[in-house]
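User: Fold this; tokens only.

Assistant: Input:
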Amino acid sequence: MPHPFKLSRIARRKGLSGLGWVLAAVSFVLVAAPLLDILYTVIRKGLSALSFTLFTHVTNGISGGLLNAITGTLALVFGALVFAAPVGILAGIYLSEFGRGRFGRSVRFLDDVLAGVPSIVLGYFSYVTLVIGMGWQFSVLAGSLTLAIMVVPYIARFTEISFLQVPNSLREAGYALGFRELTVITRIALPLALPGIMTGVLFAIAIALGETAPLIYTAGWSNFLWNGKLIHEPIGYLTYVIWSFINQPYRSAHALAFAAAFLVIVMVLLVNIGLSIILRRTRPMGPGQQR
């Protein structure tokens, strides 16, 4: 028969374990409940506000459609990725493969500092330097560059971590076969690090889709469709509709705001689904595995 002291220790451990599970469940509810409530409200009101007009008409004051905001959001995010993705990926590769010296540590430190800068500060900086200083005015180029500066640190860090997870034995095998360093990086390490890199790009897209503060200072707002000009022309975007129209005392403005919020959520979801499909098809296959 077990000693009573041993039984009490077992009971105490079970009690502490149960208490831990209860606290974890309560913490999860405290975190998940507000998020689920927000999603439920946005989806319910956003779906009720959806109509064919939203996708075929531009915004007219506080009514109309969101065609100008949808196309403007896509243009801004695409422009940000054009600038940020090459710089971030190359910076991450450098930090992982060659960034062990003082310069590498300095670049990594500056990358962390840039990631912590508030977005509104970057927006005001771009307003002073690009919109006013260089005379671009509110424009696609100013907004895209600001978003690119904001997301470069995340792409660089995801790329660095992904390359560091590639086993050194694979690199050494490439060197043993006579491959050059560039070949080892591009043909051996890069395919294995690609899922992590794409995750960083996805994270950057999600950040760019949800930003408002820096675009207010750089992209402005326009009720018209983007005419293709990179500077001297403001542009519409969905987050401005969410930020501005929800404060208006009109039902039509609230409907556009919830519809815009719903579209942003759908865009992020579609990016996640598309990325999952791409990664599943591009992931290197092991011996004996078939697609």
